[in-house]
Amino acid sequence: MFYIKTSWKTKTKFPQIMRPLFELAIIVTLPFMFFGEDKTTAVYKPSKAQYCNSRFEFCVSYPATLLPHQKVSDNDDGVVLRTSDQIGEVSVTGSYNVLQWSPKELFDFTIEQDMEGQKGFTLISSDFNNKDYESRFKLKGKEFYHKAYFHKDFYILEIISVPASEPELLTKLQEEVSVNFHM
């Protein structure tokens, strides 16, 4: 017999027909008591991929989901990464500094080649010193970010380009792509 205590002194017989319904209610609700909905919020962390270049001793870490297209240069001096919609591009290449250019001379030469016959160069920001340079500018309907790292006999040049209408993509690529040295 199954009894329900209704007061301190009396017991009431629980009707047999209600017992299976009572047990079913417990079985159905029990999992929700212990395995309720998870209240934590998931944080999106893009998976990182890496390209390493032993010739110039650098590695590039980048979000694989943002830059799924990778092309290594034929002479193994670097890599070109593209966004899935092909509008954003990150190029990281090494080159021997046979002409012994300063950071400013390398920047001027790179821009001069890009500007050939073009107008509309707008410098947004730049920082030059003896070991590297960093610059952001607009040219030919695109916005660019250049960063050069100078070593004894060579330099590494990182170039990010996006349409001028997508400056937030440029900022995101700047923040999420990193170049590291001495693998």
**Low-confidence region ranges:** none
- What value does the average pLDDT take? 83
Shape: elongated
Binned, the helix content reads 10-25%
Backbone structural class = alpha+beta
Main sheet overview: 7 strands, antiparallel
Q: Measure the end-to-end span.
A: 76 Å
Tally of DSSP β-strands: 12
Strand content: 35-45%
Number of helices: 3
Please give the order of strands in the largest beta sheet. Answer: 5-6-7-11-10-9-8
Whole-angstrom Rg: 31 Å
SSE string: EEHEEEEEHEEEEHE
Attribute tags:
single chain, 183 residues, alpha+beta, seven-stranded antiparallel sheet, three-stranded antiparallel sheet, 12 strands, 40% strand
Map the helices and strands.
Layout: E1 3-5, E2 11-13, H1 18-34, E3 48-53, E4 58-63, E5 69-72, E6 78-82, E7 89-96, H2 103-115, E8 122-128, E9 132-139, E10 142-150, E11 154-163, H3 167-176, E12 178-181
Antiparallel strand pairs: 1-2, 3-4, 4-12, 5-6, 6-7, 7-11, 8-9, 9-10, 10-11
Structure description:
The protein has 183 residues and is an alpha+beta fold. The model has no long low-confidence stretch (mean pLDDT 83). A 7-stranded antiparallel sheet has the order 5-6-7-11-10-9-8, sandwiched between helices. A 3-stranded antiparallel sheet has the order 3-4-12. A two-stranded antiparallel ribbon has the order 1-2. 22% of the residues lie in helices and 40% in strands. It starts with a strand and ends with a strand.
